[in-house]
Amino acid sequence: MLTLYGAMASRAHRSIWMLKELGVAFRHEPVDFLDGNTRTPEFLAINPNGRVPVLRDDDFVVYESMAINLYLARRYGDDLGPRDWREDALATQWSFWVVTEVEKPLLLASANRALFAPEGRRETEAQIALRKLARPWTVLDQHLSRQPWLLGERFTVADLNVATVMDLAPQCAISLDPWPRLQAWHQRCLARPAASDWRDVTFSVPRPADALGMLAMFV
Ligand SMILES: N[C@@H](CCC(=O)N[C@@H](CS)C(=O)NCC(=O)O)C(=O)O
Fold first, then answer.
1. Which residues form the GST C-terminal domain (predicted)?
2. Distance 11 CA to ligand 1 centre (A)
3. pLDDT of the chain, 219 residues: tens digit per residue
4. 83-199: which CATH topology?
5. Pairing state between β 26-29 and 54-57
6. Is residue 64 in contact with ligand 1, taking CB distance under 6 Å?
7. Greatest distance between any 2 Cα atoms in the chain
8. What's the rounded Cα separation, in Å, for the pair 219 and 208?
9. Is the CB–ligand 1 distance for residue 69 below 6 Å?
């Protein structure tokens, strides 16, 4: 039995999207990271980092959203998963790429443009983050000028992992207009039926007076 821990309005949506793409049965435990439920002894026994998502597959437990999705793709994936070692390496490459090159600056830009309360926003921080994002987004845009999906001719876990990190851009009104192929690809990814739950979530984060505290928990 598969169990996915983590509320939809968190990085858990990445793995919920994946599970829905696969069409496998799973139990959803919507553990909320904002109300202390990831810090209980029971939860820390599952993930000592106190973070969601976490996947349990019978007696096997794995955390880290990208690792969960790659595991699911390899274990249950068919066309969504890698067909050979090269595809496996490229799916891993894009998953590492998006969390190392894109995720943090995009979170910082989003926080300073939309997620923080207006008095906590710093436009200079947003500008620095957006400047950093221009390089990886140009790389992705050029890659997508040669093929429709990241691994070639079909949607795979590589697309899902990258698209799901990119979701913050439209949610926080960060324009992708300078990268039209990236933007069109992202819209194609989000149009998939399995992404609909997340598409429809109204993204809202409580705004503690302590913006740094929130940054530490979310970014
Ligand atoms: N690198 C991890 C990050 C997980 C993460 O930061 N999750 C946040 C929610 S989106 C969380 O659980 N934060 C709780 C906390 O830090 O206490 C992943 O991709 O799974």
1. 84-212
2. 7
3. 999 999 998 999 999 999 999 999 999 999 998 889 999 999 999 999 999 999 999 999 999 999 999 999 999 998 999 999 999 999 999 999 999 999 999 999 999 998 888 888 999 999 999 999 999 999 999 999 999 999 999 999 999 999 999 999 988 889 999 999 999 999 999 999 999 876 656 555 555 556 566 666 666
4. Glutathione S-transferase Yfyf (Class Pi); Chain A, domain 2 (1.20.1050)
5. unpaired
6. yes
7. 50
8. 14
9. no
